[in-house]
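Quick one: structure for this chain?
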Amino acid sequence: MNVVRFKLKPECVDQYFVALAKFNAEGLRSQYVAKTGENDYCFVGLWESEDAIALARPRMLAHLDEVRSFMQELSSELGVTDPVSGPIVA
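Got it. Here's what it folds into:
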């Protein structure tokens, strides 16, 4: 699975979800977005395999380039996203 924490600019929330609805990648089984705060969100993607995530990284980066302007910086170290991925263990 992969998880990405991010903040949306309040005026860009609708635009982000329109762009997300168009996102697809080979091997992505399902995706969820949790609203974790006022402007805070967390994307969760469930994938067929770790290899599928690796193969989809160029597509995920292209999607980030599409939506980057909708996001607020998390920190100077992280930029606009805080991504992690790994196998589901429980």
